[in-house]
Amino acid sequence: MSTPILVDEPKGLAPLILSSDSFGRRERFDAWREELMLRVIRVDVDVPDKANFRTCLRVLNLPNIAIIERRSTPSVVKRTPDLVRDGDDGFVFTLPWGGTVEIRAGADEARVGPGEAIITPLDEVGGLRTPLGVQGVSLRVARKAALSLAPGVEKLVNRPVPLDEAAFAILSSYIVSLMSAPRGLDPSLASLADQQVRELLAHVFDPSGDLARAQTYGGIKAARLHAVIRDIGRSLGEPGLSAASVGRRLHVSERYVQQLLEGAGKSFSAYVREMRLKRARQLLGDPLIAHLRIADIAAMAGFNDLSHFNRMFRSYFGQTPSDARRAR
Question: Is 278 strand, coil or helix?
Fold first, then answer.
């Protein structure tokens, strides 16, 4: 069963707006619960104040991810024993932008707010409570796709997950842009958006990626490696990015920064070059900045010399930046 398929989408993959205001005040909550939440979203819902209950969902179904932007008064959303029998074994990544989310699933209890996320499995009984209302986004991801973007996702379920700040800022901005596209997305753009959201989500939950997994790190050394990688990710556009500048921001020596990366199998310069090239390729495939020149994209990724950028890009990816832009 494909997790993201929640509703029949209109042509153009425009977000579907589901609002409690579509129903009369008297029957608002009961109609919302029966007709939309149980039948369409496949979750049950309860609220402390039915008379003043209001909510609005904007749902965008991409091939592997359903993006659900939510604004709601206090409520409890849950997967009941009856609902988990539907065979959906995907995950929901809930990222509150405002308000807090409390989870209760078996013996697990947790609370998350802005800057954190909670991952819940759809094949387990459990519920999310928003005691003061919430504004945020949930990403409903099929299991196979979730495991590909964050291989350790099953170890993260039902507990607070701190987010990489820089990666989350990019992801949230991109989601807002997708949800506000005036004419929706044609199939090719929807496929591209799906890929890019998954890539961004991987950076949010696993910012060090394969690099931090290249060697076994523990304790403070692992934390410092992750801090170095996050700092580099935030600073790729700075022409003067160096091990010394990273060390100054993190209050460690230039040599220590270099040693951390060398222990993971990369020199500082090689890692920065690789990340800048990957950032450039990502930007070249972003339809929201397709109007920018390749020189502008190169500068955003930290390359000031266009000829050097073109040579490095072709050597690393086997194609020119122009070819990459056309292919995406």
Answer: helix
Give the DSSP H or E segment for 29: helix 28-31
Cα separation, 66 vs 62, whole angstroms: 6
Per-residue pLDDT, 222: 64
* Residue 182, pLDDT score: 66
- Structure letter (DSSP) for residue 14: P
Length of the chain: 328
| Sheet containing 161-162, strands listed edge to edge, beginning at the edge strand earlier in sequence | 16-19, 55-61, 65-72, 134-141, 91-99, 116-121, 161-162
Quick one: pLDDT band at residue 9, thresholds 50, 70, 90? very low
8 A C-beta contact, residue 40 and residue 6 = yes
Question: What is the C-alpha to C-alpha distance for residues 117 and 8, in angstroms, rounded to an integer?
Answer: 28
Structure tokens at 87: 């065979």
Note the pLDDT of residue 217: 45
Q: Is the pLDDT of residue 196 over 90?
A: no
Could you give the CA distance from residue 20 to residue 3 in angstroms, rounded to a whole number?
24
Helix ranges (H only) for 150-267 are 165-179, 187-205, 209-213, 219-235, 243-250, 254-263
Q: Do the bridges between strand 108-112 and strand 134-141 make them parallel or antiparallel, or are there none, so unpaired?
A: unpaired
d(C-alpha 28, C-alpha 42), whole Å: 18
Q: Which two tokens stand for residue 86?
A: 């539907």
d(C-alpha 161, C-alpha 117), whole Å: 5
Q: By C-alpha distance, which of 129, 133, 138, 167 is closest to 60?
A: 138
